[in-house]
Amino acid sequence: MLRKRKLILIVGVVCIVGLLGVISVEAQPAPKNTLARLEMLSERGKFLKQRLGKNVNRLSSGYQMIIGFEEQWDSIKSILERAAEQGGFSQEGDEVKEIEKALTPPAPFTGNNPFAKSDSLSLFGGFTQYNPSIGWWGNNAVCGFSDSGSYAATFLPNFDESLPPSPSPSGSFSRLGWSRSSNAGAAFTDKGILLADPLPNDMAFYDLFGDPVVRAASSSTFYYACIADRYFKVDSSLAIFNGITVFKSTSAGFSWGFPVSATEGAGESETSVFDYPSMAVKPGSPARIYVAYTRFDFSGASNIIRIELVKSTNGGASWSQPVKIAEEPVTEENTGWVTNSQVAVGPNGEIYVAWEEFDRFGDQSLNPRSIKLRKSIDGGNTFGAEVKVSPVTHAGSSPFSILQGNIEVPFNLHGLAVDTSGTATNGNVYVIWHDGRNLSRHEPLSFDSRYRYADILFSKSTDGGSSWSAPVRVNNDPITKKADQFIPAIAVDKTGKIGVLFYDRKYNLRNFLIDVTVATSGNAGATWMNRKVTERSFDSGLKDEFVSSFDFSIGEYITIAQDASKTNNGFIGAWGDNSLSDSNIGVAKLK
């Protein structure tokens, strides 16, 4: 499995000494040396900060968790030490949970169990679920999500006896969970922690960090992609390989096989970081999968950020060499950036990859940026010339696009979809993003003294991506209302109806509380109907997050899915919902 051409990061010599014991590569970790394993994770965060420098801010929340953990490791070490000595965390009473159960209907919290121990550790530290992704086929639907409760349950012994297994048999970490539905999304059952265990003999750990993407290929076959670190045994040391890994389920999401790295052929090494995965399955070909991602490459004299695509033609058993979609060298003079790629497959097998391109990033400018796209008609072997979909304007305050409530929305592009309905709109290509071009006001605390209110914008191509329409505003509140709509997702159902789900502040006079809106169009995006989905508004804050320091609550993306089997009309939507004070996964059937 290891290649001589790959660079190896030597983590330690023989062992790593922790407060509660010793971790060696010959012996699997036991609960008594959990802190030593966590020390390794802290060192991983330190390495990422040193390797990426100021570029570390460009990483996704999965990596920000590691970096945040490293930054606060000393402050929480004593808490974890006491927990390990006492055999885990326990709650002496469930009064708060019982009150919440009495006051709160189960809906819309069907994406995860908000009353599990793994959702609320103490009065001062809880856990969050966010960044959902749904795959749907007929009666079966699977929702994957980032979950700091899963993360804690994999290292806190006896944390929650209802979660299998806890801790991980190999001592691996997971920040991922999943739930599934057998009634076409009407209700979901939380299935607990996503784990790679059991591991092969040459592997010590398989850590799963986040950025979940779930797709349905048949009634029984589902794929789950995420970012991951694999620790291989090399003599008496460990070699770390970071990449995008893909799980496969042949049981409609009840269980998952051992994951396969989709980026192993891309040259995983200590000098590359793989992030922001997107995944698509070719309609009618359940074994043909495409994964696009952002790669941070620091192997040469200059840093390079790339958008790449890999494919599998055998159901994820093996993966191709990467195809370069876009590339941007990063130097002190050139702070350009390409990121947040989206991949979709058309009715004739054509492959589209869209991405966001920054002329500059992180300075005090307006960060000029645009959405671009390339198309392949030979199964992803080659791609045509890039096409500019639209220039975009950042939302909120510059330079990092921060909305009221300290919500960071550094990317505009959030969705790419192709109509495969077989109707008159078959083959149309749609792109969705949030944009701050329409309205701004003076803001003295912004670097450019402006606050730009976010709208949801939509553009379409009716000629296979060669040309694009002028952007159309999807949200229907008056432009002058001074309300933010942000982080959209898009899907197209079997009738050709388009569904767009997004966070929405138009229901709040002060542009602070958040709801979720679904917008639908039955005429290829010419006009839109908006409908409020959430029953209760929420703010962007969260109850104290126990295992990381970054202020991440509702997440970087939400999801809307159509029935890939073309059995059901409409959509299933999911989002991060803070109405219980910590983020849970809200799920709703949408028409």
Please tell me about this protein's structure:
A hairpin with a 7-residue loop joins strand 11 (272-281) and strand 12 (289-297). The strands form ten sheets. This protein has a four-stranded antiparallel β-sheet with strand order 3-4-5-6. A four-stranded antiparallel β-sheet has the order 7-8-9-10, covered by helices on one side. Strands 11-12-13-14 form a four-stranded antiparallel β-sheet, with no helix packed on it. It has one domain: Neuraminidase. It has helices at residues 34-52, 61-86, 95-103, 148-153, and strands at 15-18, 21-24, 129-137, 140-147, 176-181, 189-193, 203-216, 222-234, 237-249, 260-261, 272-281, 289-297, 303-312, 323-330, 337-345, 351-358, 369-376, 387-392, 402-403, 407-408, 413-418, 429-435, 440-442, 450-452, 455-461, 472-473, 485-492, 498-504, 515-521, 529-532, 559-562, 571-577, 584-590. Residues 1-32, 95-107 and 546-550 have low confidence and may be disordered. 10% of the residues lie in helices and 38% in strands. With 591 residues, the chain is mainly beta. The protein is built from four helices and 33 strands. This is Sialidase domain-containing protein. InterPro entries: Sialidase_sf (IPR036278).
List keywords for this structure.
disordered N terminus; Neuraminidase; four-stranded antiparallel β-sheet; mainly beta; Sialidase domain-containing protein; Sialidase_sf
